[in-house]
């Protein structure tokens, strides 16, 4: 998401990548829309992670911040952290 944010800002970074890539970059407007969507999804995931963690007695703020930064892999980790492990025997 950091790369997307840098490219969305336009300027030299966008021009340098566009000049050296064999595949044409999407227009800046499209990159900014994708960035906005990704940020909205991460915020939604962070809220969900905080609620799940709180219900399970885990530190809600920590899980929410981690999920805001990482995204869905953090939700998977939260689910695994709170799912009881059953023995195959």
Helix content: over 70%
Mean pLDDT, as a whole number? Answer: 89
- What are the segments in which pLDDT stays under 50 over at least 5 consecutive residues? none
How many domain modules? 1
- Shape descriptor reads elongated
Termini separation: 43 Å
Radius of gyration: 18 Å
Task: Give the biggest beta sheet.
Answer: none
SSE pattern: HHHHH
Tally of helical runs: 5
Number of strands: 0
Note the beta-strand portion.
under 5%
Structural class: mainly alpha
Please outline what is shown here:
This protein has helices at 2-8, 12-20, 28-55, 60-70, 72-82. The protein is an all-alpha fold. The longest helix is centred in the middle third of the chain and has 28 residues, at 28-55.
SSE layout:
Blueprint: H1 2-8, H2 12-20, H3 28-55, H4 60-70, H5 72-82
Describe this structure in words.
This protein has 89 residues and is mostly helical. It has one domain (2-82). 74% of the residues lie in helices and 0% in strands. It contains five helices and no strands. Helix 1 packs antiparallel against helix 3 (28-55), helix 3 (28-55) packs antiparallel against helix 4 (60-70) and helix 4 packs antiparallel against helix 5 (72-82). The protein is elongated and about 50 Å long. It starts with a helix and ends in a 7-residue tail after the last helix.
Descriptive keywords:
89 residues, mainly alpha, 74% helix, 0% strand
